[in-house]
Structure formats: C-alpha cells, structure tokens
Amino acid sequence: MPTIKNLQKKIPLPINKINKILNKINKILDLKSDYCIVIVDKNSIRRINKKYLKRNSYTDVISFGYEEKDYLGDIFVCAEIAKSNAPIYKTSFLNELILYITHGILHLIGFNDLKISERLLMRRKEKQILNSLFKLI
Fold it and tell me: Per the structure, how many domains does the chain have?
C-alpha cells in the first residue's frame, strides 16, 4: 500500500483525503505492492530531475520503479506545480495532484509516454482512472 511523505512546507495537503483516493486507485488497478509518494517543492523536483534524468528544469512528477516483488517504487510529485497548474487547466489543486500521482503510478506499472502512441494510451488510462474515481467519490 502507498506511503505519503510530505517534504514541502508551502502548501497544506489533505493527507487523509489523498490516502482515501489512493486506496480507490489501488482497487481500480488491483495493486497489491507498496509504493511511496513523496510530495516536494519546485527546487527539490528540479534537483531530482537534474541529478537522475539530466534535465535542468522543473517538472510535475518523476517516478522511479524498482524491480522488487513487493515494492513498485517512488513517485516524486511537486505540490507547487500542481497548485500553479490547477487554474490553468480549470481544476482543483487536489485533482491536479491526483492526476500527477496517477501518472506516476502508471509509470510504475509499466506505462510509458516517450512515443506519441504510448502517450495517448497513457492519457486514456489516466482519464479512465480519474473518471472511475469521480464516480466513487
């Protein structure tokens, strides 16, 4: 099951609500393995992006999958970017954050978005999950 670590201090997070949503995502995807979601600020996500992906830029989510039976990996999500993108995409902060988390989980279970065809498939899966969540919430 997921663990949430909030390493940023700027934006208050509804951790209990996020945990409930994660439980629903786990049911939708039939996930049995553990993973960790680390909520960070812009500077932290940029450092991670630069160090591990050799990209010196901000990003919304970075996933690191591990080939362990009972542990999927770690997902780093930037709360500040979710907060600033939410009004642009006409959604709430929480919905934007959940989109990033969902995207990260999909990476951990094998989805990719490097090729256009892969990206389209991943976007469809994200929409399917989010639509299912809204029906459940």
Answer: 1
Q: Tell me how far apart the alpha carbons of residues 57 and 23 are, in angstroms, rounded to a whole number.
A: 31
Give the residue numbers spanning the domain of 68: 2-136
Q: How far apart are the first and last CA of the chain?
A: 19
Q: Is the pTM of this model over 0.90?
A: yes
Q: Is 109 helix (H, G, I), strand (E, B) or coil?
A: coil
Question: Residues 109, 70: contact at Cβ < 8 Å?
Answer: no
CA–CA gap between residue 111 and residue 3 (Å, rounded) = 21
**Arithmetic mean of pLDDT over the chain:** 94
pLDDT per residue as tens digits for the range 78-91: 999 999 999 999 99
CATH of the domain at 56: 3.40.390.30
User: Which stretch of DSSP H or E encloses residue 68?
Assistant: none
Q: How far is CA 76 from CA 2, 53, 69, 132, 137, in A?
A: 13, 13, 21, 23, 24
Give the whole-angstrom CA distance, residue 60 versus residue 104. 10
The residue written with tokens 């902060």 in the block is 93
Say how far apart CA 70 and CA 134 lie, in whole Å: 28
